[in-house]
Amino acid sequence: MKNVLTGFHHGRCGVFAGVRQVFQRTVANVYDYVIVGGGSAGCVLANRLSADPKNRVLLLEAGTSDDYFWIKIPVGYLFTIGNPRTDWCMKTVPDPGLNGRSLYPYARGFVLGGCSSINAMIAMRGQRWDYNFWASSTRSNDWSWDALLPLFRRIEDYVPFSEAENDAVVHGKGGPFRIENPRVQWDILDRWREAAAECGIPSVREFNRGDNFGCAYFHVNQKNGKRWSMADAFLHPVRTRKNLEVQTSTACQRVVFAKNKATNGRLRAVGVRVAKGHTSSFSTISVRKEIILAAGAIHTPTVLQHSGVGHPEDLEKIGQEVTRPLIGVGRNLQDHLQIRTCYKVRGVPTLNTLYHNYLTRARMGLEYLLQRKGPLTMPPSTLGAFAKSDPSQEYCNIEWHVQPLSLPKFSDPLDTFDAITPSVCNLRPTSRGSVLANPAMDPYAHPSITTNYLSTEEDRTVAVDALQFTRRIMKSAALAKYKPEEFRPGPEFSTPEQLLDAARSLGTTIFHPVGTCKMGHDSDPEAVVNSRLQVFGIDGLRVADASIMPRITSGNTNYPTVIIAERAAEYILQEQRHGE
């Protein structure tokens, strides 16, 4: 009898132990907030939401950790873009606007820090008018320039800070978002700056004061000559928080919904279905409060589409039943198309010939190792300029990224002769593309990206005007002694029709996709989220990344993405306090 009782006791303990283990696993797999995407926005959100120790926060990143050697060295972008270790390495569908070309790589960060771990490091806010447009289109003043300026100032550690320049009005010190002056300058770029001034574009100290008209060296997200990604700025300093968990190599396939009886059957996001690495094995992670999609303008809409949220026609194409019709999901894709013109120069060094000289290359390496200076600290673009393509424009609508180098296309070797590349792009394109999830339901499978560049008459006109403006600058007296000689596209492209064809042949992405889950008022049928970034018609689900931009900002898009996440974190924490 004793043996029977003992056996019963042991069996009962085993059952209880099993129940306890299941309970512990279940509790361990439930979070207050789940952030999908460990890029720029995700890093900000993880930092801000986990600052409250009561919040259990999970950050999911499909890519790997950011400990790759080339990430920290600024010039390492040459080895991270197009590298499957750090880049999704996507490809666009053939585009009639680019003479039938596909763009590869259509780079998106596949690593903690996201695109801020592989991008140009340019700290660019955009212009006052960009954000005022957001405010008007959402009917919320929270998104105006004046309302966002305190957020810009709060997060900054602005190293070029000067009381004499009245920087305290627009910049901050001591924040996580490090901004420095570039650590290398080039004679040819100094002369290009003078040439721009001859053509009516004045030299200015910086671009981030609301009106970018002028020419200046770009400020960069670097710290002492190293890349300062948003993982460096926001995530790594708080990784030791016990209430913050980061899972890499974990891709979100879809959001899990339930109908809330308390709100008459309204949908509520209650979890995410994820894959750990490239596997067919999925698990579900539950959330108590909210899921925030921060996977970027390409992957956030695909997660929604795989969840049955999107345009019914798009969902039908991928074999997905409609959970919540929102026709704007995956639509409204915008990007800055850059047209890379190239000019040979004489009597002045550029990176081309320095790179092809092994002795000089070794010297550049030593300069970086010993002083954290020189060409290895340079971003893809060093000098910038903003102007109007024609006087009728309300404010600056074109931007140049001027590089002291040339190459046939990105990832190709540099040319063997000295040359520069004044790339010019339309800051406010009216062409719109789309993103459609892969029907395979594999979160690692690339979506279909349709760019539709140069599909409107306005964009085609701006492209031709911008090329003509570039030629005026290159013919100025300031550059005459270097005998600039255009070889891409070449002087044989002279008529507007020929220049447009050149734009179609040379145009390429500048890696700024935005707008595919746009923010708007509930009267806008194509809006996906409201002014507080909540997905229309679904509780507990928010989007906070570049996909919510109603219209693309004037310039590089990483800094605006950080501000979007900062504003979203404010909203979430406000609502949490109100709920408590």
Automatic annotation (TrEMBL):
Q: Which GO terms describe its molecular function?
A: flavin adenine dinucleotide binding; oxidoreductase activity, acting on CH-OH group of donors
Q: Which residues form the Glucose-methanol-choline oxidoreductase N-terminal domain?
A: 296-310
- Keyword 4Fe-4S listed: no
Q: Does the keyword Signal apply?
A: no
Cofactor dependence is on: FAD
Q: Which keywords has UniProt assigned to this entry?
A: FAD, Flavoprotein
* Pfam families on file: GMC_oxred_C (PF05199), GMC_oxred_N (PF00732)
This chain's protein is named Mitochondrial choline dehydrogenase
Q: Which organism is it from?
A: Andalucia godoyi (Flagellate)
